[in-house]
């Protein structure tokens, strides 16, 4: 055996003896000279060896939705309420439509514009076959002749006629004019007394059938029309 081999064997034996002694005494043996440093042994990871300063806890992902209560109930977006239903106006104040044009006169408080029948707002004129009915019709005809009538429609009556405030181009209120002429009565139930001050003294006695209708005395109408039928038969 050559001298180099003998030296290496002796060194190996000495190192082995030193390792055995260190294991018995609990100390690590000193590293041999000219030998590469041994890698540092990794510390086992466990609850007792974790460093609370250097070791960060694992990141927790934020919840995708907002938690509403302690029972982890997920808050859901509130449903969008349906659009409210349109409100039906039963007694409109503002005109909902305006008809403008030449008028065909039917009687003292109604006419026709563009094939639509219009009932005057707030007044009551005699029927065509009642006393003063023909006079009322022709008086309204003279007011409307050659004029454009503006019908500000505000409602419909029980006969599906449009109820309107009717004026001429110059703003003349036809309902007011018919009362001034003594050929129509203010109808308090619908006008709120708008035209009452225009009535002349004794006008309600003159237009007694219209006054009877306004006060619910329809038996007066029935008696008058019965007499008219009897005269027509004779």
How are the secondary structure elements laid out?
Layout: H1 3-25, E1 97-101, E2 103-107, E3 110-113, E4 116-120, E5 123-124, H2 133-144, E6 149-156, E7 162-168, H3 174-180, E8 185-186, H4 188-191, H5 203-206, H6 208-214, H7 218-233
Parallel strand pairs: 4-7
Antiparallel strand pairs: 1-6, 2-3, 3-4, 5-8, 6-7
List its traits.
234 residues; alpha+beta; OB fold (Dihydrolipoamide Acetyltransferase, E2P); 6-stranded mixed β-sheet; two-stranded antiparallel sheet; 7 helices; 8 strands
Biggest β-sheet, characterized?
A: 6 strands, mixed
Report the span from N to C terminus: 171 Å
* Rg over CA atoms: 55 Å
Task: Show unreliable segments.
Answer: 35-93
Mean pLDDT: 76
CATH architecture annotation name of the domain at 97-233: Beta Barrel
Helical content class: 25-40%
CATH class value of the domain at 97-233:
Mainly Beta
Q: Taking strands numbered 1, 2, ... along the chain, how are they ordered across the largest sheet?
A: 1-6-7-4-3-2
**CATH topology category name of the domain at 97-233:** OB fold (Dihydrolipoamide Acetyltransferase, E2P)
SS content category: alpha+beta
Along the chain, the helix and strand elements come as HEEEEEHEEHEHHHH
What is the tally of beta strands? 8
Count of individual helical segments = 7
Any idea what the shape is? rod-shaped
What portion of the residues fall into strands of 2 or more residues? 15-25%
């Amino acid at each position: 055996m050559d001298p180099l081999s003998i030296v290496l064997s002796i060194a190996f034996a000495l190192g082995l003896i030193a390792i055995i002694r260190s294991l018995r005494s609990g100390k690590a043996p000193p590293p041999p000279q000219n030998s590469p440093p041994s890698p540092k042994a990794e510390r086992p990871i466990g609850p007792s060896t974790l460093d609370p300063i250097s070791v960060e806890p694992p990141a927790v992902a934020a919840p995708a939705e907002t938690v509403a209560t302690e029972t982890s109930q997920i808050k859901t977006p509130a449903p969008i309420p349906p659009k409210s239903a349109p409100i039906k106006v039963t007694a409109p104040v503002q005109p909902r439509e305006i008809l403008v044009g030449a008028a065909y006169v039917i009687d003292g408080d109604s006419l026709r514009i563009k094939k639509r029948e219009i009932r005057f707002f707030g007044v009551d004129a005699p029927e065509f076959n009642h006393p003063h009915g023909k006079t009322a019709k022709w008086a309204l005809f003279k007011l409307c002749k050659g004029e454009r009538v503006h019908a500000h429609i505000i409602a419909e009556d029980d006969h599906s006629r449009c109820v309107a405030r009717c004026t001429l181009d110059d703003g003349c209120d036809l309902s007011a004019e018919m009362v001034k002429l003594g050929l129509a009565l203010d109808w308090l139930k619908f006008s709120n007394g708008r035209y009452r001050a225009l009535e002349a003294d004794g006008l309600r006695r003159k237009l007694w059938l219209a006054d009877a209708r306004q006060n619910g005395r329809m038996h007066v109408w029935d008696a008058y029309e019965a007499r008219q039928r009897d005269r027509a038969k004779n």
